[in-house]
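Researcher: I'm preparing a figure for a lab meeting and need a structural model of a single chain. I don't have an experimental structure, so a prediction will have to do for now. The sequence is pasted below. Please return the structure as tokens so I can convert it later.
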Amino acid sequence: MGHGEIVIHLSTLIERSGMSKNRFSHLAAMERTQINNYCNNKVARVDLDVLARICSTLDCTIGELLEYVPEEPKT
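Model: Understood. Here is the structure written out token by token.
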């Protein structure tokens, strides 16, 4: 039985902010590879400090950054 998934909307939020990934990388003190992993939902564990830096840099809430998508019920 699955539990759904968490979707990270970092790519959308960076685009909406109008800043480049390079600028975001500098401001959030994150490596470009790490940003790409978050943008592509390829992280197994999240770091609360990283989430705080993302939200601070993009002036967004955790609810705008992360979304819980429940598993589709089996019929």
